[in-house]
What does this fold into?
Amino acid sequence: MSLLPNQPNQPNDGPGFAPARSFFGHRNLNGFPAWPSSRVAVLLLCACLAEPAAQPVDGDAVIARLAKRSLLLDVHGRGERALAVGERGHILLTTDSGHNWRQVPAPTRRMLTGVFLVDDQTAWAVGHQSVILKSDDGGETWAKANAENDPETGYLDVLFQDARTGFIVGSYGKFLSTSDGGNNWTEAKQDDDPHFSHIIATPDGGLWLTGEFGTVRRSGDRAKRWEPLATPYEGTFFGALPLAKGGAVVFGLRGNIFRSGDGGEWLKIESPTKALLHGGLALADGRLVLTAAPGQLLVSADDGRTFRWAAIVADETATATSLWQAADGGVLLTSDKGVHRLELVGLKTEAGK
It folds into this structure.
């Protein structure tokens, strides 16, 4: 069992007061202040960080004609196959790189916030009220595989490094790991309780973990030990994009972007937006893409040193939540208005607005 250390941005006696905690109030949606695109941003924060309402009775997701246009929060795939998940237990499947999608049955109506396709057959999805789902046929059918039954726990992300080694992160410092393909899960105990929003693997097998209170942590030994990295920001980070030489670009609330070449000194990157940056992706051509305001993405062609606007041509009113690149190069994008496919030829940057 690994011990996650205190985040260096917090005082020794606990998390204490930070802009992120005051912004979220008591971790519910009452009294959110307004900022650009506030309604959509509140919706995304509700889905990902709010304390889930206790609903002990669950049931199968309803197969809905408009599921492809509902709020979807995560997308992941392998080759031409990809899965997208979101509100009301909706799970969408494509087998042709996102040209066509269909909803598949799911044994939950709870909000699903993370999905991961391990290989052609095995897939995992997680969400509110500690729901964990597993598929053994590439996402065609699903079964519950809960590690616990806690209506106040929201799982926010899931990652597998191989068929046996996986991780689930979520609200109030939840960090679960498995070394036997999900048959058993172990919870890592810790001294603080930030929401963990995102976990991502590096090409060499390392891990980056981001979350509330400026939380950025790095592991080089499959989460046996974590190195807390001090950043100049005390708000919430929603993700990290690892860089080739051991550093990363991290991003989060109010358009905040920070870059470190080695995980040491962090440089604040000039951002053309104050919008919530919810998801990111490193493209095969080396460019970095971040989700941004309605109809907009941020794109970097210089390893995260600068970012410029790019349009979501498929729907200029959609606020993107997650990105994944298919085998043919197309970018699959989930949003508050469903799932879209973007062609790389259309992902052209323009001057910041």
Remarks:
- Residues 38-48 form the longest helix (11 residues).
- Confidence is low (pLDDT under 50) at residues 1-39.
- Residues 263 and 301 are 20 Å apart (CA to CA).
- The two ends are 48 Å apart (CA to CA).
